[in-house]
Amino acid sequence: MKMTAKTLAIGAIMVLGATNVVPTHAIDDDAKVYPGAMCVRFSGAIGDNTTLSFSAIGNPSTTATLRVDCPVINDEDGDGTLQAWFRAIDQSYTADVSCSVNSFYRSGSSWLGWWTPSRPTAGAGTHVQHISFPEDLGANSVSHYYFSCRIPPRYSGHISYITSYKVEED
Amino acid sequence: MRMTGKQKRLVMAITLSLIGGTVIGAGLERVTTAKRNATRDDPMTQSEQQVTRAEADALRAELGRALTPEDLAVAKTEIRRLKKDNQDLQELSSVIRQELAALASQVALVNARQGSEHYLALADEPERETWEEGAGKQDLTPEEAQSIADEHSRSQVELIEQTMQREETDPQWAEGAQQSLRDAFQDVELTGLHFEDAVCQTTLCRLNLTVDVDTDPGEGFREMRDAIPWEGTGFSRIDAETGEIEVYLARKGHALPRLPR
User: Fold this and answer.
1) Other CB atoms closer than 10 Å to residue B252's CB: what's the count?
2) d(Cα A151, Cα A148) in Å, to the nearest integer?
3) Cβ atoms of residues B222 and B231 within 8 Å
4) Confidence at A20, pLDDT banded by 50, 70, 90
5) Given the DSSP bridges, would you call strands A66-72 and A144-151 parallel, antiparallel or unpaired?
6) Does the pLDDT of residue B15 top 90, yes or no?
7) Which of A106, A134, B230, B248 allows an S-S link to B235, with CB 3.0 to 4.6 Å?
8) From CA B205, how far away is CA B70, in angstroms rounded?
């Protein structure tokens, strides 16, 4: 039997239609912006360890870099992230605010996960900086996402902050 | 082994789609090959002209008369239409290939489910509790979700590893990348973290490390991240029991191979 282009197209549409029977994950994008105050310190800046200003998390230490993990909700069975970013006020002229995006989960005795390279702010000042992550990050339904960040210590009395961060799930 | 109605429908839909996709794939290839010479307006090579002349002769024989200008005009219109169809089909083919890859992944996940004894036992319980509730969520128990996630990760690691094995080595880049990874662990004093090996190909590297059992593997992972001068994405497997850390790194500007949704 000769197969015409039209026959093939109809067949293809039928196949694509059939795939709709398969329960697939939600395809709507899901984006959330979180305040810096969501971040949890895990090292550095012991004592008066963090400060909040308009719910932006800052490092009041004069010597130690503050390291924080900032949780992200994985609220669909997606397998990746899209358009992640963080916003920071970097007032240190000697070190940057930097973050990476991570997606990890535990399987048996192992931790498995995907991560982006760490991205720093550029330069310093009172202005907010917007740092984007264009990478698609792998994940599954039991993965949790988080940003892992560094906030440098005060510089001439000025505190650096992470104001907010966002992950849009695909 | 008993399957729920939902599972049966899922398996049937996947089977139908796979069969349909195979047929379409074969058909597309034939159509694309057959049309390659007939759908071009640009100057033809000698061999292409010979093929076209042969096709014209065949058409003449089929019509039982010489070709008229009207025949040629009709043929030209048909060629333009076929050309458009061909382009559409190529786009469709690409979509179908992606769909099939996704379906193959779903088949793997279904297999993982069926392999779970716990799932099989629970499948007979009509009113089992669901872990994820709400619109659009699958009724998975934590064990099922874990089983699926484990299968997904196993497949993910296999995919990266196979891609790496298939890659040819870009000696200029690979040597430099391997050396930079080695140097990263020689230049810095790291607590309980030891470099074992680094292998790079063209777009991927595999880095093997160990972390002392009395060192928190999470801290080992952070130390590794801080130590390596890497600007691409990574995938890690950290065995908290043995302290083995396996890291796959994508070359800057390249993505890690990833299983489709």
Assistant:
1) 12
2) 10
3) no
4) very low
5) antiparallel
6) no
7) B248
8) 61
Concatenating the DSSP letter of every residue in B87-153 gives HHHHHHHHHHHHHHHHHHHHHHHHHHHHH-HHHHHHHT-TTPPPSS-STT-----HHHHHHHHHHHH
Does B148 sit within 8 Å of A19, measured CB to CB?
no
Kindly list the residues from chain B whose CB atom is less than 8 angstroms away from the CB atom of residue A40: none
What φ, ψ does residue B177 adopt, rounded to 5°?
A: -65, -45
Rounded Cα distance, B217 and A23, in Å: 37
pLDDT range class, residue B57, cuts 50, 70, 90: confident
CB contact under 8 A, B261 and A113: no
Contact A60, A51 (CB under 8 A): yes
**What distance in Å separates the CA atoms of residue B245 and residue B69, rounded to the nearest whole number?**
72
At the fourth CATH level, the homologous superfamily of domain A27-169 is Galactose-binding domain-like (2.60.120.260)
Tell me the per-residue pLDDT of B60-103, one tens digit each, with 9 for 90 and over.
676 666 767 777 788 777 877 887 787 777 767 655 655 665 56
Average pLDDT (A49-59) is 93
Q: Can you give the residue ranges of every domain in chain A? A: 27-169
Given A15, A107, A141, which is nearest B17 (Cβ)?
A15
